[in-house]
Design goal:
Layout: H1 2-21, H2 24-27, H3 37-45, E1 54-59, E2 64-70, E3 76-83, E4 86-87, E5 105-109, E6 114-115, E7 123-125, H4 131-135, E8 144-146, E9 155-156, H5 159-174, E10 180-185, H6 191-196, H7 203-219, E11 225-228, E12 231-234, E13 237-238, E14 253-256, H8 257-279, H9 292-307, H10 337-340, H11 349-360, E15 374-376, H12 394-397, H13 414-422
Parallel strand pairs: 1-10, 8-9
Antiparallel strand pairs: 1-2, 2-3, 4-9, 5-10, 6-7, 7-8, 11-12, 13-14, 14-15
Amino acid sequence: MTRLIKYAFLLSTAFALAACNETLEDIAPKAERQLPARVVQTMKAKGMSKTSPVMMRIFKEEGKLEVWKAKTNGRYDIIASYDICKWSGQLGPKFTEGDRQAPEGFYTVRPGQMNPKSSYYLAFNIGFPNAYDQANGRTGKHLMVHGACSSAGCYSMTDEQISEIYAFARDSFKGGQREFQVQAFPFRMTAENMARYRSDPNYDFWKMLKEGYDHFELTKIPPKVDVCGKRYVFNREAADGERLSPTAACPPMSQPESLLTAYRQYQAQYDIAFSKALKAQSTATRSETIAGHEEARLVADWSKRRARGEKVSRLPPNIPSPTAVAEAPQPASTPAVAATASAYTAEPASRLQNALEAVAGQPEQQEPAESTAAAVAPVPTEGAVPSPTPRPDASAERTASVPAPATGGQAPSLRRRIQNIFSR
C-alpha cells in the first residue's frame, strides 16, 4: 500500500513538472495568435472587418512594410506600418540566385505560400520568380518575408512583427481572399526620389513599377497586374479577352476612360514636380544600387566561394554606377484637372476627395459622372525597359516552385470592377 502511494506521488509530480514546462506555443500555436486588441479597434474605426482582404507594400530605402486592408466601400486603407528589421543587398531588383538581392516588383501570395513552421519563426513566400522575372531570365527561390531578423535575400522582421503580419494574411484567407498582392519598391516613388536616381541603371525598371504604384495611389485598389512583352502592364484588358504571353509582344489593350483621365492628370502634376526636383539634386544623397546582371553574377560567385570557405572580401563586389546628365521631361499637355476630374468621380467628394486632391492639388468638383467606357491605352513597346542579359545557364535554373498569377479568368472585368467601386 505504501509503495502504491509512493508511485502515485511520483506520477503526480511528473505531471506537475510537465505542466510547468508547457510553453505558450503548446497552448496557443504562434501561427494562430490573434491580432492585438488595439489593432482590431483601429480596424473597426476605419470600417474594416477582421477578415477583409489585405495587400502589402515594401519600401527598401525607407525600411518599411505596410499592411493595407479593404474597407466596406472596396477601397483600401493602411492599417499598420512596420520597420523592416533587415533586408540584404542593394536597391534594385533580384537578378540571379545567390546575388543576395531582395526582390522588387509585384508579387502574389496564396495560402500554400504561408509557412507556419518556418525556422525563422513565421514566414510566407512572396512568389519570386513571378511571370515578369521568369520572362527576363531572373532566377532564385525561397524569397520570404519572415521573422528572426536575419536576411540573405529576404525581408526579415522581428518575431513580434511577423506574428502580426502573418495574422493579417491568415485572417484574410479565412475571410475568403484567395491571394493577396505584395508590392516591393526601392523607395517611395515620389518625384523627388525618382529625380535622385534619374541616372541609375535601374531607372527604367523603376519607372515601369511606378505606373502600378501610381494606379494604387489614385484608386486605393490593388492594380490588376499582367506581363507581356517582358514588361509589367497594369489595369489593362486585351481586346476580345486575348490571353497575354509574358514573352510575346503586347496586343492592343484598353483601360477604363476614367482611369486614363485621372492618370494623365496625375502624370502632368508629377512631370512639373520632377522637373523642379531635378534642379535641386546637385547635393542629393543616394543609396547603393545594383548594376544589373553583371554585378549580380559577381555577387553570386562571391557567395558561392564564401560558402565553400574560400578567402573572399568582407563585402560583396560592387560595380560603381555610371553617371549621366539628367534631363527634365517636357510636361504633358493635359487639360486642366478641374475640367476632367468628373470622369473619375461618380458621387460626393467624401468618397474620392483624398485620391483626387492628390491628383489635382485642389478639392474635387462635383459634376455629373461621365461614361466609363474603355479607351485604347497606349502600351509600352517591347524594349523600352532593357531586358537584362540572361545568364548562360538561365534556362536550367528556372524555378516553378510558385505558379505565376493567372492572366485570365478574372471574375468581373476590370472595367466593371472599377466602375462598381466608384459608384457605390
